Amino acid sequence: MEISMADNPFLKFLFLGISAERRKHAGIIALSVVIVFLLSGFMFVSSSIRHSIMHTLSVEPDFVYQRVRGERVVNVTDESAEKLMEIRGVTKLSPRVYGRYFVEKGGRSFLVIGIDFLDEQSDDRLEKLVSGLDIDSFLEGGRMVVGERVARWLKEHFYGDRFTFITPGGESVVLEVSATFPRESGIFSDDTIVVPIETARKIFAIAQNEASDYTFDVPNDSEWDSVRAKAEAVDYDARVVSRRDSEKIYRKLFNFKEGIFLMLFTVVLTAFAMILYQRYSQIYSSERRHIGLLRALGWSISDVLKLKFMETFFVVSVSFAIGVGMAYIYVFVLGAPVLITIFMGADNGVVDIPLVPVIEPFLLISIFVLYSVPFFASVLIPVWKISVSDPREAMS
Amino acid sequence: MERNSHNGNIHGDDETNERDMVVEIENLYRRFDDGSDTFEALSDISLTVARGECVILKGVSGSGKTTLLAIMAGLDRPSSGSVLVEGRAISKLPDRHLSRFRGKHIGMIFQHYNLMEHLSVRDNVSVPLVPAGFSADEIEMMVSEAMEMANISHKSRMEAGRLSGGEKQRTAIARAIAPGPEIVLCDEPTANLDRANAEIFIEILGRLYEKGKTIVVATHDPIFEKLPFPSRVVEMSDGKITE
Is there a domain that residue B243 lies in? Predict the structure, then answer.
């Protein structure tokens, strides 16, 4: 049997009261919407970036082998690759050639990555990353896979999907866009151009027996530490970075940033709770009278608390829904202007990261709890105090 | 219970003792302590009110009338002494039971009407019925009857804030009698009314008396000295019953 609001006197009275005092509630709802908007906006950005990072890292190789001299990454030769191949447990060893290509002198640059498509694993990873990519046609040459920002830039500046690279020797290399990276990987791929390794060698004039670094997998987890130690011993200047290292670094970075933001939000929420508490504990005389009157008319303390709880629940729910909805639009439709710059750092240069809509139920529950608990406490405690101590208020 | 005929003024204790007592107060004290000073608002009050009786608590401001009324309503608790309403020691009831008891047995009319200004007359009258567990249809019926009794049905949809003083007081009467209480307690009910509206109030009070309600009015308005129905006047001064 369906019970409508009109059939339930308590609910009817609750909504009558809310509607009659809409001006009072509108003020609180507006303030609450701002708090929820800020809190959920930040959480959405953080969660989306975290999701993008984890998505991209999940298709990354287990290890990257580099050589670093004087804090600069230098090319790795075939000799090192051969030694790496000899380490037991290493599979899918693959060279990468990459570098930043400046499309404007001293200005905008894109990361050009060359992948050895003769390696099956490179095909797999790229196919995983760019679903629907026709690897065969890509390999025919003259093609590239680009990030969203690169694609946009090409459209704006070249009226099409072609770009002419100039090699250090002055030769032209014309490439056509064959696919664009998905939004999920945008945080890494946004300014990236992936080309066959030979094309990259040409663009950066890197010798045939050299690569920027090598990647490899170690399928057996328990061998990771020993393989790493052996790989580090291949060259005196070797640096071996595992996927887990990258994950850890990003986690630490985000935990740190989230920590700072959460601290700021704690301060904001505390201030908000104090405002509410003060508002309800000073409870202006009309509200005190209102509670006293209800008590005088036969409402018990628990009836009054139930009414105030439901009234608060309504305010909390409405402001939560509006705040979250606005944050969703701000983050995932408008791209979180300003907030993303604060989060990623303005000097990062990658501030127009595409944010993929990621809504985790746990995240929404966390936001609701973070916001609603102080709200409920700051409203109900003073109401309870008044209900308990002053039922004579109506007669004063 | 409806009254068949007027019984005349009821003054004698012997006579009231033989009747069914609705309120029985004995050796009641009420002290307010602010830490450094103690103020005795009520001192050694003993009073009984019989079923269907109308009692006027008369006295100047600060004589303790409102405090006594609040204790009868269970809104305040005595410092010592006993208070029985409908045979129950209301000061000892836990809040939930006391509130239900008050909602069912006691109707209150206040000096300042205490209406919810933004609600309609009908909605104001329904307030004491909401927590009592009545269905929407029952509430509708009880509210209509109470408004009829208080002559305010014609304004049922109007916001309370837009009513005149007399209409507000009639709405407050309807609200007090809507749950069908046996006892109606009035605190300075005519203090904010002009003569004409005060007379209308007394006329409605007379109807309640005819219906057999027990009425206690705390007032200093001389209009209550000559009521068109039997009543007993109890004089109060400095927290004591003087007459």
Answer: no
- For the stretch B41-95, pLDDT in tens is 999 999 999 999 999 999 998 899 999 999 999 888 899 999 999 999 998 888 8
| CA–CA distance, A361 with A358 (Å, rounded to integer) | 10
- Residue of A9, A21, A293 with shortest CB distance to B136: A9
pLDDT digits (tens, 9 = 90+) for B193-235: 899 999 999 999 999 999 999 999 999 999 998 889 889 999 9
Q: Does A13 touch chain B (CB under 8 A)?
A: yes
Do the chains contact at A10 and B96, CB–CB below 8 Å?
no
Residue B18 inside a domain? The answer is: no
Residue B1 placed within a domain = no
Beta bridge mates, A109: A102
Contact B139, B174 (CB under 8 A): no
Please indicate, yes or no, if residue B119 is contained in any of the structural domains.
yes
Residue B58: which CATH number? Answer: 3.40.50.300
Domain hosting residue B114, numbered range: 51-77+93-234
Chain A CB contacts of B135 below 8 Å: 7, 9
pTM for the predicted model, two decimal places: 0.69
* A119 has a chain B CB within 8 A of its CB: no
> Into how many domains does chain B fold?
1
Angle subtended at Cα A73 by Cα A68 and Cα A79, rounded to the nearest 5 degrees: 70
Cβ contact (<8 Å) for B100 and A298?
yes
Nearest to B124 by CA among B114, B111, B134: B114
Taking the C-alpha atoms of residue B192 and residue B183, their distance in angstroms, rounded to an integer, is: 23
| Token duo for residue A378 | 């700051």
- What is the ipTM for the molecules in this complex? 0.84
